[in-house]
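Re: beginner question about structure tokens

> Can someone show what the tokenized structure looks like for a real chain? I only ever see the sequence side.

Sure, here's an example I had lying around. Input first:
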Amino acid sequence: MSSPVQALWASCPTVTRLVVLGYPAVSVARMLLVSVFPSIALLMPPCTVYWVVQQKLVWAMPMSFIFRPIDFGPGVLFVFFEVYMALAILPRREYALGSAAFGAWLVVITMLMNSLYLAWMFILSFAFGPTFLLRPIQGLWSLLMFYMAQKSFKSPDESVNFWGVISMPNKWYPLFLTALLSLLNGTIMWDLVAALVVSYAHYRFQLEKSLKSWLIERFAKCFSPLQRFSGKIGGSWVPAGGLSMPDDQLEQGFGTVINQRRSAENAPTGNQASSFRVFSGTGQRLGS
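And the corresponding structure tokens:
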């Protein structure tokens, strides 16, 4: 029997796999290299007002989800916790959009959240001091919170169980999680608040169709070269337009579904073809 992590990994298409593999690798590599070559920090700066606005290193904004500045110890563990959450959450988005559009989605949503966050930090620096100019929005947590909030807004009356202790309506879960993490950190998690605000605006103004069209037409082609990694890391490339898959069937993976479809197309007519089912098996629900 496969472990939960193996089942999650089996469901991941190409771009999600690249994120899951690259995120801890880049984070650890940056930590090691900066201590030897300090100039690396200029190539991969954290996304703060100081670096983006004052130093004009604007590439920090689209790159913020690629790595997290860490030190040895709990920081490394937190990176791998983010990776586990990404394994459970991000494949759904890639299946829905297609791999190329999903890569563009990662960048565009990150830019929207980062823009709002940096504007807040700039304003707060006048009231509470210049330390806010150095507060980064970094890592995968904002993207994960954005998507969790999207799922909650679409089914607000359903309930979610928080670690078997508290049951609450979906619509309150992202806000509760943000408040809990802020309490544990001893400060308001403004990056998660930015994710909630952008996610609510995205849902409230029905931006899904227009944003999806914009991504596919303008930016998705930039991520098409990533398809060559499909064979190297074992993931499958989801074509433009995405693939509709129920949550409890995601563990089959896109490659399995394609193979089943090909088998069905090549099967002779009669009882053998009529017994074919695209989504078969008991499945395992991923996430909450």
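Each token stands for a local structural state, so reading them left to right follows the chain. The beta strands are 159-162, 166-169.
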